[in-house]
Structure to design on (546 residues):
């Protein structure tokens, strides 16, 4: 017996040593050997998703003489989070997402909704400009008008009333309709009301200017246009294996052809890491001290999907509910119209899945590979602090098909199981970040990383992500190239985003003009709400919007 305990103790000591050695292993890329006379490109974009596509498009228009390289690990672009079936395809505008509004001390805080709505107005302007320039194709190939509806029942009706009363005070939500009339809500969203208990108290709000967006289509179209430029080169099936700084303050990016095994590198003045969940691991390669504060927590999603024409014909809306008390923001249930590659679907979810992968097409070792001496304690702290999140994920993973279908029936009482199939969505990585005086913080939004010298940037996090990509990348340009955005690029930025530098939430006249322009260009449903625009401001706003 003593021998057993002796061996066990030795084994434990060995495991501890191995664990310490693993945590303290080098995570920075080895220096990539370069030659002094090597060609230096201006920009390297890591990842072929909507963020890289959007940033590349901005830079190509602002600085067409710059040489840009894009590297994508998979065989084609837009196959991870940007793919049409890997996200909910919502043009997030704060209209119906009740996790963007919360009641504090008896008052409704709508600041998050205002922020997201303002950002999406920039996105629509960016896409409208690209349509006008012939960069993006016919709008219906990537965006379609779909009303945004927030729907609740029971005790949540009171919340909805307070939310509506607060939101209609802001110009961004002018024209929002509130109804507690079952017949009217039936007209808005028949699936939601058919077969519902007539005694159940319900309420809904509706915004007609809402949209469904295929971010995969946008990504492909933007990159197809970039490939027309002689200064842009895309490599697919190419895995970035290292990022190291050179003595001349340029960066070398090493990459490998995943099919041939060929290894090469490129020197660049600027790096953007837009690789979805893999961004954390790639950022760690740089060895930048400011990158040490990050860790990641992977969460996947799956949806129930139907393409039955009988079902899809009865539902043209995105209907968002309210998450259960204590549930994380990504758990908000919704039943959505989707248009993907010209076909109409109805999608319900999300249901959380757990995997150690940082990408849908990633490795089960991703989480372990990202763990090191700098972030292991923050990761442990987050696990202990967020027991409710862990419990939620466990409950979701343990759900049966019957459990998922019962959740669907709360939003579509007459749903038939034979019409629906389970579709795996994308993988997202929630950011864990060290905070001064605190172990760590779990972030549910997106974060732009920029090195101190502004030569390396990255996008971390998830929602609202793709829907506000033009705003996010505009913000990144301001961080990375402050002199150019204020100087030589400024006029062009105002051409691309007509409201650039303006606060649309406080300027109803300009907001109306911008929405008229973007909606007419993109084929969205918009009519100026009554009493939105003071007459004296119209002329000024028209001048800006034209």
């Amino acid at each position: 017996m003593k021998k057993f305990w002796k061996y066990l103790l030795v084994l434990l000591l060995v495991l501890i040593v191995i664990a310490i050695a693993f945590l303290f292993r080098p995570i920075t890329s080895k220096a990539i050997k370069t030659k002094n006379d090597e060609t230096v490109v201006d920009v390297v974009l890591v990842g072929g998703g909507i963020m890289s596509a959007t940033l590349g498009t901005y830079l190509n228009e602002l600085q067409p003489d710059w040489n840009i390289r894009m590297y994508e690990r998979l065989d084609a672009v837009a196959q991870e989070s940007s793919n049409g079936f890997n996200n909910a395809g919502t043009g997030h505008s704060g209209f119906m997402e009740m996790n963007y509004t919360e009641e504090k001390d008896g008052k409704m805080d709508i600041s998050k909704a205002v922020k997201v709505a303002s950002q999406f107005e920039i996105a629509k302007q960016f896409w409208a400009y690209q349509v006008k320039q012939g960069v993006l194709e016919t709008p219906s190939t990537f965006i379609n008008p779909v009303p945004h509806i927030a729907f609740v029942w029971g005790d949540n009706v009171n919340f909805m009333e307070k939310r509506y009363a607060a939101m209609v005070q802001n110009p961004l939500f002018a024209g929002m309709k509130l109804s507690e009339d079952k017949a009217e809500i039936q007209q808005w969203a028949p699936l939601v009301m058919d077969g519902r208990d007539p005694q159940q108290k319900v309420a809904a709000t509706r915004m007609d200017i809402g949209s469904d967006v295929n971010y995969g289509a946008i990504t492909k179209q933007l990159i197809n246009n970039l490939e027309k430029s002689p200064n842009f080169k895309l490599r697919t099936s190419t895995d970035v294996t290292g990022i190291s700084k050179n003595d001349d303050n340029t960066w070398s990016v090493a990459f490998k052809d995943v099919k041939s095994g060929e290894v090469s590198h490129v020197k660049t003045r600027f790096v953007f890491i837009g690789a979805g969940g893999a961004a954390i691991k790639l950022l760690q390669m740089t060895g930048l001290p400011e990158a040490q504060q990050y860790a990641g927590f992977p969460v996947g999603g799956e949806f129930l999907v139907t393409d039955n024409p009988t079902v899809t014909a009865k539902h043209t809306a995105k209907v968002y509910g309210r998450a259960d008390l204590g549930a994380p923001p990504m758990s908000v249930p919704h039943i959505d119209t989707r248009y993907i590659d010209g076909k109409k679907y109805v999608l319900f979810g999300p249901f959380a899945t757990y995997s150690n992968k940082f990408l849908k097409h990633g490795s089960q070792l991703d989480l372990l590979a990202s763990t090191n001496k700098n972030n292991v304690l923050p990761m442990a702290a987050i696990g202990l602090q967020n027991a409710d999140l862990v419990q939620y994920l466990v409950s979701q993973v343990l759900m049966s098909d019957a459990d998922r279908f019962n959740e669907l029936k709360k939003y579509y009482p007459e749903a038939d199981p034979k019409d629906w199939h389970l579709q795996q969505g994308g993988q997202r990585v929630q950011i864990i970040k060290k905070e001064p005086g605190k172990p760590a913080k779990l972030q549910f939004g997106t974060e732009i990383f920029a090195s101190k010298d502004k030569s390396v940037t990255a996008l971390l996090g998830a929602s609202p992500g793709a829907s506000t990509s033009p705003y996010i990348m505009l913000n990144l340009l301001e961080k990375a190239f402050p002199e150019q955005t204020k100087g030589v690029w400024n006029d062009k930025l105002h051409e691309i985003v007509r409201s650039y530098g303006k606060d649309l939430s406080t300027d109803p006249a300009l907001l109306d003009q911008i929405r008229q322009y973007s909606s007419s260009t993109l084929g969205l449903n918009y009519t100026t709400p009554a009493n939105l625009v003071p007459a004296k401001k119209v002329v000024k706003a028209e001048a800006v919007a034209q």
Observations:
- The chain has one domain: 40-486.
- Residues 535-545 have pLDDT under 50 and may be disordered.
- The first strand starts at residue 40 and ends at 41.
